[in-house]
Amino acid sequence: MPKEKSEAFDFNTPKKKLVLPDILHEISGLVALDSNVAACVQDEQGVVFFLDLHKATIIDQLEFSGPGDFEGIAQVGTSLYMLQSDGILYEWKNFEKREKEIVSYPTPIPATNNEGLCYDKVGNRILIGCKSKIGKGKEFKNLRAIYGFDLKTKELSEKPVFEFDVEAVKAFAREKNIPLPQREHPKNKEMLDVLKFQISAIAIHPLTKELYILSATDHMLFICSYEGLLKDIKVLDPKTFNKAEGITILENGDMWITNEGQDAKPTLLFFEN
């Protein structure tokens, strides 16, 4: 029987580490279609790439838009949804037939930079994770948000469906003795805890219904209950996770995470449940 707890994963020791093709140097979203094939997007091209997960090779691709900043991808039945950073969603209907039937939905999401995208089967919605703040002013400084796109009405939730307070997350980490990112104070050289909590990818675990949130900037993975309560924080090795921007979890609990190349090669990591 597959394990149902996040503790089953040793995130700093992937079962497999594969190098992706150079065209996926800026890979930014990933969703497994089955145990062998995934669909992914990269930052600059409006193209869905179909990837052999075990060989890390491209087996097919299809253009759905012109150039843009594409950050996430999710599967809902026979449709694929792709997220542009400004909040526009693209739906590719009947993608398995490779017919180019594309619909776009300009969502009124208040964040200017959005990177997380996943399907929430229980809520019949797409979740959109905001990387940037959702407003100006002190009240938004420590607020991080995930919105819901209703698949029946094709409308964005007026308010976030999940909210996280960065200071509360810091307090949780300190209570659990989880080390936070640090930087040196420019004047007194004191080491300060720094947590940006900039959402780069999200996924819902199909067995536990836990919400997994990656913050590439912090080299951290946050695990929450389906209700959005923080349960655990995993510190990720920057050498293994140089810029983690894609995550997908299979029905049996196995997990794949992708890293942008930056100064190295883009990678695909496999974690067995």
Task: Describe this structure as you would to a colleague.
The protein has one helix at 166-175, and strands at residues 16-19, 27-32, 37-42, 47-52, 57-63, 70-76, 79-84, 88-93, 101-106, 114-120, 125-130, 143-150, 155-156, 162-165, 182-184, 191-193, 201-204, 211-215, 220-224, 230-235, 244-249, 255-259, 267-271. By secondary structure, the chain is mainly beta. Strands 10, 11, 12, 13 and 14 form a 5-stranded antiparallel beta sheet that branches. A 4-stranded antiparallel beta sheet has the order 1-23-22-21, with no helix packed on it.
Bulk shape: globular
Order of helices and strands: EEEEEEEEEEEEEEHEEEEEEEEE
Helicity, as a percent range: under 10%
Low-pLDDT parts are 1-6
Determine the oligomeric state from the structure. Answer: single chain
For the CA atoms, what is the radius of gyration?
18 Å
The assigned structural class equals mainly beta
> How many individual β-strands?
23
Instruction: Report the major sheet.
Output: 5 strands, antiparallel
Strand portion, in percent?
over 45%
- Mean pLDDT value: 93
- Tally the helices: 1
Distance between the termini: 10 Å
